[in-house]
Amino acid sequence: MTKLATSITFKLSNGSSIPALGLGTVPSEDASEVKDQVKTAIKAGYRHIDTAWRYGTEIYVGEAIKESIEEGIVKRSDLFVTTKIWPVFHKNPQDSFKKSLEDLGLDYVDLLLQHWPLCFKCDNNEGDPPVPMDNDGNTLFDDQTDDGSGFIEFYKRIEELYLENPGKIKSIGVSNYSIPFLKKLLPEVKVIPVVNQFEYHPQLPQQDLINFCNEHKIHVTAYSPVGSKGAPVLKLPLVQEFADKYGVTTNEVANAYHILQGRSSIPRSSNLERIKTTVRLPSLTEEELDQLYQIGVKDPKRHIGGFFGADIGFKY
Ligand SMILES: NC(=O)c1ccc[n+]([C@@H]2O[C@H](COP(=O)([O-])OP(=O)(O)OC[C@H]3O[C@@H](n4cnc5c(N)ncnc54)[C@H](OP(=O)(O)O)[C@@H]3O)[C@@H](O)[C@H]2O)c1
Fold first, then answer.
1. Each residue of 80-116: pLDDT tens digit?
2. Nearest to 80 by CA among 106, 50, 48
């Protein structure tokens, strides 16, 4: 019998456990649809929900969690909820966190991430606009420091929030951090991030970043595991071949690529049937995992690019 991805958890460096399979909650069109997506996922056994202030879906994630608890499907303590602080809140992450907790209707989050190692300009506490731009469409940054290390100050403010509110934030981490940025951050902080969440799939080889994270006991969460819109990863002939061989879907192969190598995977879908059926963990061999890795070595492709016009140290 094929194992279930929903039964796997990984230990974080602070002793907490993160479920291997999470549900992403970026909305496709109508943000309110996320409520049914989260309820469907929880019913199907997912215990990890990935959200963010920026997605505008926390209120629907919150409703889904509340109803799932009321219906006796889960307890709060069964769930692992991640939210993130967007770069407009680099000076005041506490305002973003307060709003996230209120919208989620939760007393605590399991993981709070610095969404990007970037600081956007903002002259209010509401994070408006979320991506400030000049008339030519260039993002307006607010680095605060001469040496461009504002992202470290941003992390330290999240760290302070965590140290002051241990009951409300169980763990902290980062997202979209490359090796050069991690190398600058780690010597400066008291609390080493327990997670780095970044784009990862067979088309984007990042073994050096994985090795660096492993060395520092930073768990990796892979976002865009099927390559985001259009699901390009699922069109790779090798992914289809392994799905046929193991009698699973291509989505399940895409998640297995991470989970079998100790990373959590957070796909999203507006298709409830797809959410329900993407739960098995085919036992790909080491050789097959390497064959998938080599696809990106030969032809690397990043699908969530741009980085708001900033250089954040990624090779591709
Ligand atoms: N930290 C960050 O900066 C960051 C950035 C990006 C994403 N994330 C997180 O990662 C989550 C997932 O990322 P993502 O949405 O970029 O990527 P994804 O899960 O790789 O891709 C989702 C897209 O693939 C489509 N898809 C999935 N299976 C399909 C299939 N079998 N056939 C056709 N289309 C298929 C979905 O369409 P359907 O809706 O039709 O299924 C959806 O449009 C997000 O929701 C978010 O929580 C974090």
1. 999 999 999 999 999 999 999 999 999 999 999 999 9
2. 48
